[in-house]
Amino acid sequence: MSAVHPTPTVLSDLISRVQNKTAKVAVVGLGYVGLPFAVEKAKVGYSVLGIDQNPIRADKVNRGENFIGDVDDAELLELTQKGLIQAVTTFDALPDCDVIVICVPTPLTKNLTPDLQYVENVTRRISHYLRPGQLISLESTTYPGTTEEVMQPILESTGLKADVDFFLAHSPERVDPGNQRYTTKNTHKVVGGVGPNSLEAAREFYSQTILNVVPVNSAKAAELTKVFENTFRAVNIALVNELCQLCDRMNLDVWEVLDASFTKPFGIMPFYPGPGVGGHCIPIDPHYLEWKAKELNFNTEFIALAGRINRSMPEFTVDKAARVLNDSGKALSRSRIVMLGIAYKADLDDWRESPALEVLEHLEARGASVDVVDSWVSHFENKGKEYHTVPMSDELIRSADLVVITTNHKSVDYGKIVELSSAILDTRNACKGLVGNNIVRL
Fold first, then answer.
1. Catalytic, out of 97, 103, 244, 281
2. Which residue in 182, 191, 194, 361 has its CB near the most CB atoms, within 10 A?
3. DSSP sequence for 194-247
4. What pLDDT shows up at residue 377?
């Protein structure tokens, strides 16, 4: 007599624990995605175990010390004091967890190919503790097929079957750091499972804390949804970056052209140029899709072109800086530059993947002396070299041959910068509305 898999019981038991909040939740990776998610789950009564192999992060969470801008300091402290959130650096407690959410980095290699080492390593660790009735959900952005082609075989090597003994889903993160309007809770959540049981389990789990859950028919569809969202942004940013370079040759103000274009109430969407693209999604995710397409003997030429244009912007910015200095009879190689901002986005302390890093690298390679001012970032590194930002001062701005605005932090008094500077290259339109012959916009 053949064995019967107890799927209905396993699934119904999990859903029951999810609904009555007795399910224990593990969140692997306590960064910009994982920690806000852990807080949202704990706020509605779940017991949340955060797993992060960085002991400094884990210790801070256990002390209730927040290190993510999108998390409320008081909320985290209260949740840790109540015991609803605790953090560890090991996976030993996973057998006690009913839901395991993976929020680890998915970077690129030097050859712009997917680097899934963190996803693979975490999946292998989970497989050592996998038991029937658990839900594993990957939130990390990746190429279509990762959940089924990479994770599922590792987990099923235990002898347990996905969608029968355990449940496996992909629900891509949609985090916009610093966004005060759209948070983890009120941003629509796409969910796809490796089968109908996995989709049902994941949909029920996410609907307990997120207002709108959007189910799709497969994990692969969910993966492609996220990669397309970020590719859409990358392509449109590339379009305005190319327009920026064209306007530079035509001696036109690209910002004026864009502002005029965006007054049209239909058929257009605002995107703006800059010194490059930054963050953990836009510079990376389109390459995941491009790589997967090549595996299928399909060339995503539009995406590849957008990537080349966006990657050209840091060097274009430095070339324009050299021209601004040359107009004043100065050489870039003998000039003192002040860069305002190293963070990849305004009013954030995150400098990773920032285009300002490459601008700085090009400036130094061409012999410029560069000071970086950023009230949000005290120190950073680039290609093994460590840097410290310097405090803003009137004397510093006056002494600069050129001020390059690379991040438009709201706390900066740009009117004063215009008043004190001999020349400004504004790559973010931070000086919009200000008047000065010393202002040159990208």
1. 281
2. 191
3. SSHHHHHHHHHHHHTT-S-EEE-S-HHHHHHHHHHHHHHHHHHHHHHHHHHHHH
4. 96
